[in-house]
Amino acid sequence: MTTTNLKEKTVRGGLARVCSQAANFLLRAGSLVILARLLSPKDFGLVAMVTAVIGVLNLFKDFGLSTATVQRTSVTDEQISTLFWVNMLVGVILAIASVAVAPGVAAFYHEPRLVAPTVVLALGFLFNAAGVQHSALLQRQMRFTALAVIDIASLTISTAVGIGMALRGYRYWSLVGIALLGPLVTTVCVWAAAAWVPGMPRQRVGLRSMMRFGGTVTLNGLVVYVAYNLDKVLLGRFWGAEILGIYGRAYQLINIPRDMLNSAVGVVAFSALSRVQDDPGRLKSYFLKGYSLVLALTLPFTILCALFADDATLVLLGPKWTPAAPILRLLAPTILTFAMINPFGWLLYSTGLVGRSLRIALVIAPLVIAGYLVGLPHGAKGVALGYSVSMTLWIIPHILWCIRGTVISFRDIFQSLSRPLVSGITAAALPCTMQVFYGHMWSPWLRLVLGITVFVGVYLGMLLYVMGQKAFYLNLLGGLRRSSVDHKALASA
Question: Which run of H or E residues covers position 175?
């Protein structure tokens, strides 16, 4: 693939992913608002109890083999076919394991209602396994527009069905329906889009290194999952479904923007970086542009959630969710840290440094778990505070470890970080002042709208003009526009 073609595909793919994730954000935020009014905190907590436990099994759904398929510079049809059947075998094993642990999950939480949802959600492992390699093929071919359409279709259908079930009184089963229908729709769509039918599995097709790569990726994901989800397991076990439901909604509300933006850029960045892993100059340029974009878009969302936690909770979730507001504010540093450190996964995975990623995960896991345990006696707010303190302490060591021996320097990262961070802190000053002196005179809706408007205006002014980033974003928008025009011209030719 030539430099020009890769750049065009990357830019076009980035545009498709951004549009997709914008739609996903609206759908997820809308469903969150609607379901929060139709269901109780306990309904959310019950499903969160199940997903926090069987989510460990979900990490093995593709055994890291989809990542291996995308990362390799070349891969054969025989290899992909064999990987497909490996994935299916893993899916069957995980489904059986999920059914087997269902009674144990119910016993652990002292909640017998968890048996049936755990058994039903086991089907999700089969649905996911059947579409892993097809999705990886689309990603490898950088067909991000197709993947974007599939993501939107899957989320739209599953959300509509879930809301319909909630309206009919199915309570927590509506959340189970969303979790199960999403992977089913996705798998059906990726089969249709990829138009690839797997052949029979073969021996001696050169899978050993790919299996080793995938195994390391999976082990890394397992360690990270345990570290970042044990908070929910502990709260569910010791504080009950209602407290977990409140904590989970606060976490989802503040994490949706960060998750959407990282996903929008991350999939494209990983594919592009994998293609240029042997070209240090392009690797550095692509990474820093993606990193700067994610930070610039994530930071304002996170700061806004911290500033307007009370009003956002009341307006978006409703009065019965007001206990989530202080948790939302306490979790803000955690999500901010994720925005700063998670993109380094693109760099490590695309350059084959999965071993380093695993070693980093093995260090961060006990640090984060210690934060949970210190805060657990104080409930959800204590866990949120412990989580944020431990993550904040980890930022600089994480960055230094990730970039060691790469073409990226700490100065590069500092420059990328400082501009949106200083802009965000400066932009927060005026809304804070307005809240203190005039906030009591306004309704929650008015405070939220005015505060966001003022913050965004000051933030953009600082970032684009004071920090000198106007040219960078104009070039980025220009590249998107040129890519769109070129794509239309080719389609009409």
Answer: helix 172-194
Q: What are phi and psi of 298, to 5 degrees?
A: -80, -40
Q: In angstroms, what CA-CA distances link 293 with 249, 453, 478?
A: 26, 21, 15
Q: For the whole model, what pTM was predicted? A: 0.70
CB 334 within 8 A of CB 391: yes
Angle (nearest 5°) at CA 410 between 405 and 411: 130
Phi, psi of 474 (to 5 degrees): -65, -40
User: Which residues make Cβ contacts (< 8 Å) with residue 50, sequence separation at least 6?
Assistant: 105, 114, 117, 118, 121
**Tens digits of residue pLDDT in 109-121:** 888 999 999 999 9
Q: Which two tokens stand for residue 321?
A: 């969710």
Contacts of 237-243 spanning 24+ positions with Cβ under 8 A: 237/108, 237/109, 238/376, 239/379, 239/380, 240/45, 241/41, 241/42, 241/45, 241/46, 241/48, 241/49, 241/109, 241/111, 242/40, 242/41, 242/42, 242/45, 243/41, 243/45, 243/379, 243/380
What is the C-alpha to C-alpha distance for residues 156 and 144, in angstroms, rounded to an integer?
18
**Residue 72 carries which DSSP code?**
S
Yes or no: say if 132 and 186 are a contact pair by the CB < 8 Å rule. Answer: no
Domain ranges of the chain: 39-206
Task: Specify whether the CB–CB gap between 117 and 51 falls below 8 A.
Answer: no
Dihedral (Cα; 134, 135, 138, 144), 10-degree rounding: 160
**128-172 pLDDT, tens digit each:** 888 888 888 887 777 777 888 888 899 899 999 999 999 999 999
Tell me, what amino acid is at 140? R
Tally of CB atoms within 10 A around 111: 18
What gap in Å lies between CA 401 and CA 405, rounded to an integer?
A: 9
- Residue with the two structure tokens 């490590």: 348
Quick one: tokens of 28? 């997820």
Q: Are 354 and 210 in contact (CB under 8 A)?
A: no
Element (H, E) at 426: helix 410-438
- Three-class SS state of 403: helix
In terms of Cβ atoms closer than 10 Å to its own Cβ (0-12, 13-18, 19+), residue 411 is exposed
Q: Tell me: the pLDDT tens digits for 12-55?
A: 555 666 676 677 778 888 888 899 889 988 898 888 888 877 77
DSSP-assigned letters across all residues of 305-317: HHHTHHHHHHHHT
Are 122 and 142 a contacting pair, CB within 8 Å?
A: no
Residue in this structure with the two tokens 């501009």, named with its chain if needed: 419
| Long-range pairs for 74-80: beta carbons < 8 A, 24 or more residues apart | 75/140, 76/205, 76/206, 77/199, 78/199, 78/202, 78/205, 79/205, 79/206, 79/207, 79/210, 80/133, 80/136, 80/137, 80/196, 80/198
Residue 147 near residue 15, CB atoms below 8 Å: no
Distances (CA, A) of 125 to 10, 93, 174, 182, 261: 31, 9, 19, 12, 26
Contact 231, 255 (CB under 8 A): no
